[in-house]
UniProtKB/TrEMBL annotation:
This is Cytochrome P450. Keywords: Heme, Iron, Metal-binding, Monooxygenase, Oxidoreductase. The keyword Heme applies. It comes from Streptomyces termitum. InterPro entries: Cyt_P450 (IPR001128), Cyt_P450_B (IPR002397), Cyt_P450_CS (IPR017972), Cyt_P450_sf (IPR036396). The keyword Oxidoreductase applies.
Amino acid sequence: MFDPLSDGFMEDPHPHYAEVRRHAPVHEHPGGFWMLSRHEDVEALLRAEHSVDKGNARSSGAPAPAPRRKGLALIDQDPPHHTRLRGLLSQAFTPRAMSGVEPVVRDLVGGALDDLERAGGGDLVETLAFPLPFAVITRILGMPEIDTARLRELTGLLVRLGEPGSGSRAKEDRAAADAEMTGLVSDAITRKHRERGDDLLTALIDAEDDGDRLSHDELVAQVAMVYVAGYETTVNLLSGGVLALLRDPDQLSLLRARPDLDRNAIEELLRYEPPVHLTRRITLRPHRAGEHEIPAGSVVLASLAGANRDEGFWGPDAGRLRLDREDARRHLSFGGGVHYCVGGMLARLQARIAITGLVRRFPGLKQAGEVRWNGLVSLRGAAYLPVRV
């Protein structure tokens, strides 16, 4: 069964996911949750419109409808409140809005690559993967002056405190970090009402659907969510994608030689090394997976990383990186159903510009030491990736 404490898991969890998928693709875990690993089962769960609200978890019986919680972020809401929030939020993430982001990303990537060139290399996480998504989010939001260093610390802290096994004080520490971040963001939004501009935050303030607007508390929750959900995940996508290419020289050479593969290459990197390994649903009704019927009110962990390398779906080469894979876009790295990642377009854009720019600018790019991992299970990624350019 799923065991993140097993030998070698933190170094490389994919062999463990493969064993679980092969021998127990659907199982009830003694930790009090169910686990799904096959692509078919994971995709069906994500499309089934079960709950993301842990308040719906019960040991037995159908869960009662969850009351609306004012200001709760999109990723923690179920329909119909999720539908309302997503409709308003998506107005600020339209293709037209995103078209103005590309020059910002290119400018930031160019500066990071200049720094790498001057130094002859360095830690790719600290130089590129770590600062880029935070700077992009801050720039496109048009955040007023804010303590960005502390905001970045709080973002990372909230991600880590949300992980399984984060310790007995995690609930209290998370509440304190959340309260501090809420205060920072709330103050920035108050000032933004007076300092409007052509940016995402102004668009969120103005977003309207038949007279409905986001309240101040809801605005704070969505902005905090964009940082927490869109930051660490993109760090993992950038560092994980580059590491996968460095470990496969043939695919690295292929990407350098074939600009026509750029978009598909990012889909394959998302499949091969997803930035999020696990996601959770709570069943609102009995759910069938393989030969098992999962009761209503059950917590179900869906292994996105396991599903993305399922030989039963992808074929015998599922464990190989292949940038020209025709169906790479069918990965589940951005989830599925009504909770499909609203920021997927932005993540793809950053990865395409940063990864292709890095490998083509530096034909001598090499790994210059051992990678160190961040110690997380759901958001596993590199904390340190030394390179020479």
